[in-house]
Design goal:
Blueprint: H1 3-18, H2 24-31, H3 35-42, H4 50-60, H5 64-97
Helix pairs in contact: 1-5, 2-3, 4-5
């Protein structure tokens, strides 16, 4: 699991421990994110944007080292997704060329 997802999960679970009725919607509201967007981030269907990541770092008051790791994790996830997409496009093109 990516570092930023670990931090988000840890914080969400900490809040749920204090209040069993604490919802993903409430957590998203606290973070300034749309609830469905946060759900997609947790399920790894959508990456967290660097801009949203900066806002989350501030909301969670992460220390400098954790903030750096959090933001680096977001960038690495986005790079990996783009690399995977590019690899799929190249493979598809190679398949059509050599058919």
């Amino acid at each position: 699991m990516n570092f930023h997802l670990q931090i988000l999960t840890r914080e969400f679970e900490k809040r749920r421990t204090r209040n069993a009725r604490y919802s993903l919607r409430a957590f998203a509201s606290f973070l300034g994110l749309h609830p469905s967007a946060l759900s997609r981030v947790f399920s790894t269907k959508q990456p967290l944007s660097p801009k949203s990541g900066l806002a989350v770092v501030q909301k969670l008051a992460l220390d400098a080292d954790e903030a750096r790791q959090f933001l680096q994790s977001i960038v690495e996830e986005r790079l990996q997704r783009e690399s995977n997409k590019l690899g799929a496009v190249i493979q598809a093109r190679m398949n059509t060329v050599f058919e």
